Amino acid sequence: MEAMYPGDADATTGSFVVLNPEGVEAVRALVDAWEASGKEPASEALEALAPLRASLTLAVPDGETRGTVTLRVSLPREYPGSAPALEVSASHLPRGAATEMADTLVRFAATLTSDLGEDGGECLMELAVEAQNEASSCVEREARRRAELGAATRGSDDEPDACHAVVRVDHMNDSKGYVRTLQKWCANLGLDARVFWSEPSGVPTAASDATSRPQKSWTSEDVDGEPETTARGVVGPPAGGRVENVFVVVGGDGDDVQKFLARLRTEFIDVDSKGNKCRERQSTVLCRRFASQTKQGESPVPHFAGFECEKVVGGNRALEGILKRFNLLHVGTGADRFQATGG
């Protein structure tokens, strides 16, 4: 094996390394003594031998790059009557593909050793060749999988497929600062967003209407009528203080939407009841999907651009209308998705 794979992994040779050379020396010494004396070694001497361990690293082209696959082999004392233990790792394949490759090689090794009976047969040379073939097959399968996945997440014009997410936030204590942070994140990530918010329970809805520009709050009567043709005015962000039952609809590149969701859970964005900065701990991602993943019978999410806010007046029926407007009425679970939990 060392003669076949003498050096660093490259396109023609690869690298075979014995991981416990002291074990090889012990075996050689035992065999030399056997040949010199003609007396078969005692069972105690055989049992004292450590399993021989080695690794074979092969170069496998993956498109314009070159990755490596490493096969680690541990030979049991019963070898070649028993199959070797195998581990596979790959620099350019996902863990699942490496695991699948290892399972295939384990079955192959068994056909050359334990499946042949007590005496078995040698398998390392054949195993090395099969590992090279299987590694190339894995690369081809992964390339096809990536191509299929890319096709599934792109539109018909070969542009990146839009991704949309709906997040329910229980409340914002510092609503003005919270919304400004959301707007900054969306601008940095190139996302479009709509934020819908409600006054805290028991607060008169007129309390936040005295702002510097005309506003329109959408009620259940508005959305139960002709929501797709009725003119809408932008309410604008909250004036400050606490608001509840907030829904955020974001759209854009899938990776950027995921970054937005990660920031929402990991970065300081609000204040607690004592005024200390805090992270968002009471939000729920109700939906995250690509536009091409719309189910049969569903309409895609209509295009929207920029960052806008609206105040919701009318309770759950108004919220139902908003989600219907974005063809996202199905998200969440029942009326519970609308209920503030306090705190």
How do the strands and helices of this protein lay out in sequence?
Blueprint: E1 15-18, H1 21-37, H2 43-47, E2 52-62, E3 65-75, E4 85-90, H3 95-112, H4 124-152, E5 163-172, H5 175-189, E6 192-198, H6 220-224, E7 243-252, H7 254-266, E8 268-271, E9 277-279, E10 283-290, E11 307-311, H8 315-325
Parallel strand pairs: 6-11
Antiparallel strand pairs: 1-2, 2-3, 3-4, 5-7, 5-10, 6-7, 8-9
Task: Please tell me about this protein's structure.
By secondary structure, the chain is α+β, with helices and mostly antiparallel strands. The protein has helices at residues 21-37, 43-47, 95-112, 124-152, 175-189, 220-224, 254-266, 315-325; strands at 15-18, 52-62, 65-75, 85-90, 163-172, 192-198, 243-252, 268-271, 277-279, 283-290, 307-311. The protein is elongated and about 100 Å long. The protein has eight helices and eleven strands.
Keywords:
single chain, 343 residues, alpha+beta, Ubiquitin Conjugating Enzyme, Alpha-Beta Plaits, five-stranded mixed beta sheet, four-stranded antiparallel beta sheet, 11 strands, elongated
